[in-house]
Design a protein that fits this description.
Largest sheet: 7 strands, mixed
Structural class: alpha+beta
CATH architecture: 3-Layer(aba) Sandwich
CATH topology: Aminopeptidase
Number of strands: 7
Mean pLDDT: 96
Shape: globular
Number of domains: 1
CATH superfamily: Gcn5-related N-acetyltransferase (GNAT)
Helix content: 25-40%
Number of helices: 5
Strand order of the largest sheet: 1-2-3-4-5-7-6
Low-confidence stretches: none
CATH class: Alpha Beta
């Protein structure tokens, strides 16, 4: 039996359609995990996804040649905040979880961030225990809890604020 072919790499602007598909899937599958909504992101034209891939690094996790996960990094703007990067959009298809691809994806983002920024920040919904364990195992530490960080109808969601120092 051969091992499944896995790869993690930066997505290119020409791959905007697969980026859009996995992003919309993430928002549909795990709506509580993201600040934006499926309706908002689905209304964005393909040009928006092309521009995102041009302007900031977004990585894809691939299993047997098909995309199964994604994670992005953006750099804070402004002279005094450019030392900070923010991990965003981390997602892994449920069927692909538990194979180490999420960890490989996170490490690819962190490897890219080294030399670019001094620290990587993220926000994670407080009841997403699996993601929190992954982040902690890769050196992220919580520095706060934002209560009522997001609101969905009448329901509030709290988020942990986490950081990983690279220097």
């Amino acid at each position: 039996m051969t091992a499944p072919r896995i790869a993690v790499r930066r997505l290119l602007p020409a791959e905007a359609e697969i980026f859009r598909a996995i992003r919309l899937e993430a928002l549909a599958t795990c709506p509580d995990a993201y600040a934006t909504t499926l309706a908002k992101q689905a209304a964005d034209p393909l040009a928006h996804f092309i521009e995102t891939l041009r302007d900031s690094p977004v990585f894809g996790a691939f299993l047997e040649g098909g995309i199964v996960g994604m994670a992005g990094l953006y750099r804070e703007s402004g002279e005094r905040k450019r030392h900070k990067g923010v991990l965003w959009g981390m997602y892994m298809r449920p069927a692909a979880r538990g194979r180490g691809l999420g960890r490989a994806l996170l490490r690819a983002v962190l490897d890219h961030a080294r030399g670019e920024v001094d620290q990587v920040l993220l926000q994670v919904v407080s009841d997403n225990h699996r993601a929190i364990r992954l982040y902690e195992s890769e050196g992220f530490v919580s520095y706060g809890l934002e209560r009522r960080a997001m609101k969905d109808g009448a329901r509030y969601l709290d988020e942990y604020l986490m950081v990983r120092y690279l220097t």
